[in-house]
Amino acid sequence: MDHRRMRAAVFHGPGDVRLTDVPTPKLREGDVLVRVTAAGICGSDVNRYRYGSQPWPPPFIMGHEFCGEIADVGAGVSEWKVGEQVVVQPTLSCGACFYCRSGHENLCVEFVRRGLTGSGTDGGFAEYVRVPAYQPHACPAELTPEIATLVEPTAVSVHGLRLADVDTLDTVLVVGIGNIGLLAILAAHAGGARRIVAVGKYPLRQELARRYGAAVVLGPDDPRLRERIVEETDGLGAEVALEAAGTPSSLRTAIAGARKGGRIVVLGVIREEVPLDYRGILMNEKHILGSIIYQRRDFADAIEILTRWGVDPRHITVTIPLDDIVTRGFVPLTERPADFVKVRVAT
């Protein structure tokens, strides 16, 4: 095998991902080369495949949920050795702005310009990827590659729960039980939530929600949905409501399902303006919080949660080879998204 070249899925625009041989990345000072073991296809990857990658122009290699092995280290890197197993946190940050210096690298002033590894910068849908040495986390031996690909989306939920800033989790409402919502249930359960109520469709996802800690799962089309949520949360509503579906109706459900003084954390990406009952928000003193990706401590906590709790094997709907990422990945995820929880790509 010629290690100077590698197989990669290169994004060229909407509906245009090409499997091709490209040069293996050359190391720069402060970087490491990771041989990718496995990667997950995120909903944001599917959206870029469908609609484009604004504000990051193609071509680039997508994939920001991945794990692997250190294959080489660049000059000045002493914290990593060849052969170490890692999970990569794809956050790219300047390290110098007010937010980076205060530990909020997810709010870096250069976030839009830099993007993430796999979003604007070449990522994990390839045999190898070059990343800054500050990105990897050590992968415990107990954390299999199948589960390690779920660390990144789990960290999204961990960060959202941290933003809620409650000393002890009481009642938690999770609206939307796709991959992010299911992992939010798991994170809330691991965090000691007394009672978790989930809202979402599809029998397998509902079963996984219960498996991960939801006491009750309600259908989004229930005509008494808001009343049911209140009934299932001591007649008050939830202390913390996580919106994880990215739709106007799911945001309104999360707000309505939160108790007076409750915290609503928006995890889903909503692509349109959403009219809200601002008087109700004011009079009930509800707090709506935006949550963008995660910080390093959230990623570390996600590794710990998945190492301890694991996931149901059915969470990974299918594992596909890199060469099938379009025909067995992006295309069916676009046409039949309800058929999948998570698609894993093995390289």
Describe it.
Helices cover 30% and strands 28% of the residues. With 347 residues, it is α/β, with parallel strands linked by helices. It has two domains: 5-150 and 311-346, Alpha-Beta Complex (Quinone Oxidoreductase, Chain A, domain 1); 153-290, Rossmann fold, CATH 3.40.50. Strands 3, 5, 6, 9, 10, 17 and 18 form a seven-stranded mixed beta sheet that branches. A six-stranded parallel beta sheet has the order 13-12-11-14-15-16, sandwiched between helices. The model has no long low-confidence stretch (mean pLDDT 96).
Question: Helical stretch count?
Answer: 12
Main beta sheet strand tally, sense and closure: 7 strands, mixed
Separation of the first and last Cα atoms: 15 Å
Q: Which structural category fits the helices and strands?
A: alpha/beta
CATH top level class name of the largest domain: Alpha Beta
> What gyration radius follows from the Cα positions, in whole Å?
20 Å
Q: Outline, from the CA principal axes?
A: globular
**Helical percentage:** 25-40%
What's the quaternary structure here?
single chain
Number of strands: 18
Q: Could you list the spans in which at least 5 consecutive residues all have pLDDT below 50?
A: none
The CATH homologous superfamily of the largest domain: Medium-chain alcohol dehydrogenases, catalytic domain
The tally of structural domains comes to 2
Percentage of residues in strands: 25-35%
Do you know the CATH architecture of the largest domain? Alpha-Beta Complex
Helix/strand order, N-terminal first:
EEEHEEEHHEEEEHHEHEHEHEHEHEHEHE
Per the CATH scheme, the topology name of the largest domain is Quinone Oxidoreductase, Chain A, domain 1
For the residues shown, what is the average pLDDT? 96
